[in-house]
């Protein structure tokens, strides 16, 4: 597998990375089988988080015997020195290792004050001195914070959503990271499942040698499809340009990226799916969403009291309640025509 240097970390990692978040929904023995297949096929970069339930422990169970041959990045949502230190001890235990290659602050808002001895960043410096982490990273869903993180010079890596739906300003991060020698990790290459064909996405991202996409994988068939793309990387040809243009046209404007920062919802609305329902119905097989179960889940939107939690926590500044109301009206019309 082709590798790349991850910025000033000097870590050599495969240009195809494994996003382990979806494996929290996979039974443990199958998750182990998928992770071992990925390792045996040559993938060396694995990205997880303390917040991803049992994902760290699944990496530890599957790959602890080859720890020195892979790069593990995890994340902490803690905002204080004490809590970061606690999170890292849990992560080390779950991962069955005595060091983490890259510890990333998980979408912090705002960025921590670096000279505050009780800040999360102060903890990262202490952990690095202790040898428990090797490099310091940050993840963000907001362009302003991503740019601020780059400007600070404090972080070895940046993780940000990048695919061909990204705005020109967002894509400028690729060159900015290259110029500053910051490792760039691209989350959500398929935009939370709205881009249903990985081939044009793979071709688009492979144009940028300093970028490492992390593909969220839950099933063996998804991994095999990705390995086939890596073995024969597609190029951006006329057909792929046409597909990119079509997707950009259809997904122009405001849409939910399914990051999940709006949760939990007091009305128990499954916002990341419900807010995208009009797109899911037309870009995926719609029948799974025509069930009584999904009808009940979408119906919860009527109980929304506009508490403001989802709106204020959306890193993309979306008017989430408005998107939900539109999604419910569309869903009911669509379902009435099908059922």
What share of the residues does DSSP label as strand, in percent?
Answer: 5-15%
CATH class of the largest domain: Alpha Beta
Q: Tell me, what's the shape? A: globular
Strand arrangement, major sheet: 3-4-5-6-7-8-9-10
Description:
The structure is a single chain. This protein has 339 residues and is of the alpha/beta class. It has two domains: 3-240, NADP-dependent oxidoreductase domain (TIM Barrel); 271-338, no CATH class. Helices cover 44% and strands 14% of the residues. It has 14 helices and ten strands. The protein has an eight-stranded parallel β-barrel, surrounded by four helices. It has a two-stranded antiparallel ribbon with strand order 1-2. A hairpin with a 6-residue loop joins strand 1 and strand 2 (12-14). The longest helix has 19 residues, at 320-338. It starts with a strand and ends with a helix. 40% of the residues are buried. The model has no long low-confidence stretch (mean pLDDT 96).
Short characterization:
With 339 residues, the chain is of the alpha/beta class.
List the helices and strands and how they pair.
Layout lengths: L2 E3 L6 E3 L2 E3 L8 H14 L3 E3 L7 H9 L7 E6 L4 H15 L4 E6 L14 H11 L2 E7 L3 H10 L4 E5 L6 H13 L2 E5 L10 H8 L5 E6 L3 H12 L6 H13 L20 H4 L2 H7 L8 H8 L9 H5 L6 H19 L1
Parallel strand pairs: 3-4, 3-10, 4-5, 5-6, 6-7, 7-8, 8-9, 9-10
Antiparallel strand pairs: 1-2
């Amino acid at each position: 597998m082709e590798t790349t240097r991850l910025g000033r970390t000097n870590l050599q990692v495969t240009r195809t990375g494994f996003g382990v978040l979806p494996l929290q929904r996979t039974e443990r023995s199958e998750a182990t089988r998928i992770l071992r297949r990925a390792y045996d096929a040559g993938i060396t970069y694995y990205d997880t988080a303390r917040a991803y339930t049992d994902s760290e422990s699944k990496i530890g169970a599957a790959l602890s015997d080859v720890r020195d041959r892979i790069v593990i990045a995890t994340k902490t949502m803690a905002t204080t020195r004490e809590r970061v230190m606690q999170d890292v001890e849990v992560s080390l235990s779950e991962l069955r290792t005595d060091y983490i290659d890259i510890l990333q602050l998980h979408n912090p808002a705002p960025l921590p004050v670096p000279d505050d001895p009780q800040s999360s960043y102060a903890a990262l410096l202490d952990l690095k001195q202790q040898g428990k982490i090797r490099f310091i990273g940050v993840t963000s869903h907001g362009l302003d914070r991503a740019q601020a993180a780059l400007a600070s010079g404090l972080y070895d890596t940046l993780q940000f959503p990048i695919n061909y739906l990204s705005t020109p300003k967002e894509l400028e991060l690729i060159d900015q990271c290259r110029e500053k020698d910051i490792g760039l990790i691209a989350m959500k290459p398929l935009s939370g499942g709205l881009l249903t064909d990985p081939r044009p996405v793979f071709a688009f991202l492979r144009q940028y040698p300093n970028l490492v996409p992390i593909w969220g994988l839950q099933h063996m068939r998804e991994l095999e499809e990705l390995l086939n793309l890596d073995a024969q990387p597609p190029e951006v040809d006329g057909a792929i340009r046409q597909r990119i243009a079509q997707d950009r046209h259809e997904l122009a404007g405001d849409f939910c990226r399914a990051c999940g920062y709006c949760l939990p919802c007091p009305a128990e609305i499954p916002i990341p799916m419900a807010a995208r329902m009009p797109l899911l119905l037309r870009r995926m097989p719609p029948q799974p969403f025509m069930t009584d179960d999904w009808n009940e889940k979408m119906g919860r939107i009527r109980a929304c009291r506009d508490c403001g939690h989802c709106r204020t926590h959306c890193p993309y500044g979306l008017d989430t309640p408005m998107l939900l109301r539109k999604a419910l009206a569309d869903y009911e019309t669509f379902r009435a025509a099908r059922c």
